[in-house]
Amino acid sequence: MNEIPINLSAWPGAMEIALPPDLPSISVVTPNFNHGKTLERTLRSVLGQRYPGLQYVVVDDASTDDSPQILDAFEGEIDVIRSPERRGQYVSINEGMSRCRGDILAWLNSDDIYLPWTLALVAHIFSRHPDIQWITGIPTVMQGGAIVAVGRCRPWPRRLIRAGLCDQRHLPMVQQESTFWRRGLWETAGGLDTRIDFAGDYELWTRFAREAELVTVQAILGGFSFYGTNRSIVGRETYQQEMRRVQSAMDADDQRLRRRMDQLHWLGRLVDRKARLPRLFGVDLSGPVLRRCLEKNAFQLERHWYPLNRAQG
After folding, report:
1. Which residues neighbour 37 within 8 Å (Cβ) at sequence distance 6 or greater?
2. Which residue range is the domain that position 276 belongs to?
3. Distance between CA atoms of residues 282 and 25, nearest Å
4. How many domains does the chain have?
5. Residue 148 is part of a domain; what is its CATH number?
6. Residue of 93, 37, 97 lying closest to 60 (CA atoms)
7. Is the Cβ–Cβ distance between 6 and 147 less than 8 Å?
8. Residue 92 DSSP SS3
9. Domain-embedded: residue 134
10. Model pLDDT for residues 152-191, shown as the tens digit of each residue
11. Are 29 and 57 spatial neighbours (Cβ–Cβ below 8 Å)?
């Protein structure tokens, strides 16, 4: 990732972006548990865009910090669901989604943010392209209120996502904070699996990919706030264990694809390590072998790419 020190405090609360006449409604769900230190920033990153078709649902999972008081201050701007007892992040998100009325859905955790242009750009894409079912933006990391890292926006065919290959080992993960989808896709997929504690987004993407292609957007839509004690960071080992359980339950075709990608992953690492050598073990790995391997496995990486300028034009 490339370092881009952009201070969010210098950005306006909203961007003047022309909205389409056939404005889609957007519902965003924020689950929260004891994130009073970051909750207000998250709320303002959504509400500050002044998107006219927004429904914002916040589900507080029995917080014991100042989160309830912060939510009270936004009364009338957000729909608040308060749980009397702790139920877990994915139960909260599913409940929030059940209250959503929007055409387009997403969830944003209470320590992450949207960018000032996010909702307007999302509205442009979905209103002008009715065939698109879900999108994701450029993976972005924030720290201390600033963008500190930006990844590359790669288009991955649904077959690879469906097989669980966006697991950070084979391919980069689909960033949840930057992902939006149509209501029908959520309803068809069936929502989050509440038997999973950490890797619920990863599992959900595999089911989304069974229904539709993921379209990548050449724009920063959301940011993952890194502060070292993130739930996903602290629970990384559990996250990986849950990913493996999801992968082991996949069908035979997906398992075969994973095995093929494992072979290519090993070969790719071998080539990278020996890139300065013209031949390795008497075999030329500079191109022909790897190319034949790719052709044999028939990985056709179609480019499902949606440049930002198409959304503005």
Report:
1. none
2. 253-297
3. 61
4. 2
5. 3.90.550.10
6. 93
7. yes
8. helix
9. yes
10. 877 778 899 999 988 888 888 899 999 999 999 999 999 9
11. yes
